[in-house]
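User: Predict the structure for this protein chain, please.
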Amino acid sequence: MRAFPVVVLSTVGLLLLAACGSSEPSSLAETEEVVAQLREVFIGRASLSDDAINQAAIQGILDFLDDPYTSYLEAGRYTDFTDSLSGTGATFEGIGAEVSIRDSQVMIVGPLPGSPAIKAGVEPGDIVLAVDGEPTEGLDLLEAVVLIRGPKDSTVVLTILRAGSLRPLDIPVVRDTIELTSVLARMQQDDVGYVRLNAFDAVTVSGMIQAVADLRETGAKGLILDLRNNTGGLVEAAVGVVSEFVTEGLVCTGCNPGAEEDLHRVSGTGSAHDLPLVVLVNGFSASASEIVAGALQDHRRAAVIGTTTFGKGSVNLLLPLETGSGLYVTVARWFTPEGQVIEGNGITPDIVVGANGNVQSAQRLGALTQPLCVAFDEERDKLDGLDYFVDALDGLCTLEATTSDEPSSDQQLDRALSEINKLID
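Assistant: Here is the predicted structure, written as structure tokens:
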């Protein structure tokens, strides 16, 4: 009766304890004793199956860790997720949007340009409350990704809460094959080149180097590097991007408890060390984007323009378990060359252009208010004699989301042009 919980907890526990360099067998023995006592006397002991205890033990440990990126995938979902990552990596099937966890909620971070998500009206910052009617509350990151992804031509309905709205909105999205184009380049003015990085993948560095060379040949005397809505990717790609513009020194430092510092330095082989540069970021620039922006900022190589970045500075591994399940685990944190902590803080721009953080604040307040309005709908008929209370809630919960007209120009890009022209002159 006691053997199974010990095996489960010791397997998971040893994995975690090994990272800290210590073990506490007496604590695990106490856990075993608690389970045994519950199975002996608890009124609901019939529900304490081996599988239930296994899942509860794993979930309890993950909840204790309080890390939004460390999560568990049961066997079926782990297989679905790994299958979706198979192939060349140049394409995948889904809606074409990066998601993350912010304040325990599933958030759309970066809809890809031209993707089904963009065409359907999904926006950065949208909170996904449900997927095909299945609530996302309590889901971890990988579970949410598995739900949203799916085969081409299938439709998924996202129930989203948008900043400035108190009512959910159902958005059907027809999945498609998503082609990943990580580098887009053009001449922005006669002597100013523009390079947008949509991701940091295996071909980003080579694509960017070629783009910079082509732009210089066309006459570019300065460059705008746009990292807005770029949710990251490979740290090696981030190192390669920084190496194109910085001659020597650190790109970032990884901190892994119990291990030596993981130092990433520029390669010294870049071709644009002398090219005037500015960088654009926003609240949905994350991970590798933040590494690049932070490194260029710390090296005084480029002015960073926009709004404070997302604040995702962790390193994660997807580990298979013997049961066929998987564990997605945070193994390190990234720091900028001068020691700025990226995780939870983001990179603060040198020049702030735009509302810094208003989307996240509105999302947080909207998320708190939305269940109040749902409860108000359900209980409204029982509030006789409380007219003032009903009027107040009615005024709050019937507010329609308002959106301003799209600006005639990109204010952040305009400021970047102004700054790069100063450097060129």
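Confidence is low (pLDDT under 50) at residues 1-24, 403-408.
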